[in-house]
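Dear H.,

Thanks for agreeing to be a second pair of eyes. The structure we're designing against is below in token form, covering all 163 positions.
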């Protein structure tokens, strides 16, 4: 059997969405995401009714989880910054400093384990207030507030993350 050699510049890794792995740990009750609303209205359709409240608790175990990823020989980890966690108030652009500290620590851990961090900005975690107030992505105001969120993420992490 011939083995394929993966080129050194090839990114091989894993990816996640914040609400699936972080759960609600470290968030205030008013920082709900759309996924949390979805779970609250339809818990029966989730496997064993396990939703964002529990997830896999990456929030508390990220150092160990990242070390495990690196031990598999991965060189990249694409993670999502949870919009609802990152923005203390998504309507005004107020950033949650605890979230900045958390994601900065995640980025540091990824790099210390020899991997490259890749940020995803949204994956089913639109803040619930934007869904309730502007009908989510249907509302033009949500798009404007997304731009504000992206600017805040770049402001905080542009020097630490290339992708």
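And this is the sequence the design step returned. I haven't edited it by hand at all.
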């Amino acid at each position: 059997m011939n083995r394929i050699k993966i080129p050194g510049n090839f990114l091989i890794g894993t990816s996640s969405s914040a609400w699936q792995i972080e759960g609600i740990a470290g968030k205030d009750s008013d920082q709900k995401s759309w996924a949390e609303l979805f779970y609250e209205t339809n818990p029966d359709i989730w496997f064993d009714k396990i939703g964002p409240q529990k997830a896999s608790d990456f929030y508390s175990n990220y150092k160990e989880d990242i070390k495990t990823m690196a031990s598999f020989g991965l060189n990249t980890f694409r993670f999502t910054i949870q919009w609802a966690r990152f923005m203390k108030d998504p309507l005004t652009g107020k950033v949650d400093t605890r979230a900045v500290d958390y994601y900065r620590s995640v980025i540091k851990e990824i790099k210390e384990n020899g991997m490259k961090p890749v940020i995803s900005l949204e994956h089913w975690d639109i803040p619930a207030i934007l869904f309730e107030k502007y009908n989510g992505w249907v509302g033009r105001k949500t798009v404007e507030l997304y731009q504000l969120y992206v600017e805040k993420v770049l402001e905080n992490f542009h020097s630490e993350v290339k992708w």
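Two observations from my side: Residues 14-157 form one domain. The mean pLDDT is 93.

Warmly,
E.
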